[in-house]
Design goal:
This protein is of the alpha+beta class. It has helices at about 110-115, 125-135, 140-155, 215-225, 235-240, 245-260, 285-295, 335-340, 380-395, 395-425, 430-460, and strands at about 15-20, 30-35, 45, 50, 55-60, 65-70, 70-75, 75-80, 90-95, 100-105, 160-165, 170-175, 180-185, 190-195, 210-215, 275-280, 320-330, 340-345, 355-360. The strands form 5 sheets. Strands 16-14-1-2-17-18-19 form a 7-stranded antiparallel β-sheet. Strands 9-10-11-12-13-15 form a 6-stranded antiparallel β-sheet, with helices on one face.
Amino acid sequence: MSLEYNKNTLSACTSILIGKKATIDGSTIVGRNEDSQASWPKHFVVHEHTEFPETQKFISKANGFQMDLPKTRYKYTSTPEWTFKEGLFEEDGFNEYGVAMSATESAYSNQQVLGADPLLEDGIGEEAMITVVLPYIKTAREGVLRLGEIIEKYGTCETNGIIFSDKDEVWYFENGSGHYWVAQRIPDDSYAVVANQLAIQEVDFNNLNDFLYREDIIEFVNDNNLNPAVKGFNFREIFGTHDESDEVYNTPRVWWGQQFLSGRSEESPESEDLSFVKQADRLLSVDDAQDYLSSHYQKTEFDPLKKGINGKKYRPVSLAKTQESHVLQIRPDMDLDVACVHWLAMGVSSQSVYVPFYLGMTDTPAEYKIGELPYDSKSAYWTYKLAGVLLDAHYSEFGKMYQEKQKDINITLRKMLRDFDMQALSKDAEELPQFLTDASFQLSKTALDGYKELIAQLITDSTDFSPLNFKHDSNL
């Protein structure tokens, strides 16, 4: 079996970012679908706080990028690949200071910009970003600055968008070329959805509270005659692309997110002028973030689950090639170990469930640390994938039953999380880590057991759909 795979050639994620005053409970909420291959397992791990005796060196197996790392590595969670042959791709997690990071939303830069500042083959890429940034920062803003410094010094091999958040701020970072970047803080009362395009628009260089950037980016743009506007500095217009493929592959997902969260409008799914930052028509919850990342243009003519031409016209948010989907929620007025919840859906988000894991846990369940190629029945990734495969074969017959089971599991998980939150209040500092670990394990087991029941039902009910079936005469 060949395991040849180059994730750097793929570009297929969708992201959501929500400020704390835009949410129903004051949480900051960010999330992303990691889309890559239909069968490519992910794991979920905890890296404990470590004091190394000497400076560490990171060397990427993906492209040879290397840099020195501090002796102190903070505790952090991540979702690495099942094999490190092509690199780590740790993708998303929290660190012990309650900073969340998700990397990356792949994007594209135009040829004029890349001609002036090309990407570097051995620069930092998606594969390395979580590993060399998340364990070494104490705030979201600090994460933006650390990644910016790395890109300025070493360059980058890709055009990417990266999410950072803490209990107070949500940031979106974009590099538009080999060494140039900007980042924008999502206003507390707003949200953003991003889909494989450079998204940041007008940059206010006098507002360092809401914008960070490479210091000489204006000079770079002016010296190379890159700004097509008479006035202003629109990062998307200067650095991004406007290809026909954007109108089919990318912008419809942004349009759909804005239609879902801000209400229906007359804007076109193929519009190149959709706003980056928007305000919702209601206070948003973690359910809204998960529903968007699990969506596929439901109740529209573009739903791929509907028969017809338009059902396959636009690339949906939830994709068969999703490896995992995550929502990183930081709730207010709680100990960080309890407040930070890593909601993780293995496999296709619309066919999976988001299981909540506490930052304060010291380990992840065994099922989340196994799973390779081919299929492994003990793996969490493969359990959720199997359920989806069985559903796909007979969606019209099993879709409603499947959704009802998902709903039942989701309700149970939310009830359990509330109960665990309350119990955590009575735990002292020594008891809390083990309690949160046990709680996370119970939440995971509840979801996996529910899906194993679902799989058993799907297999049982599918046996009557064989093409070798034949309607018997009542007299036989």
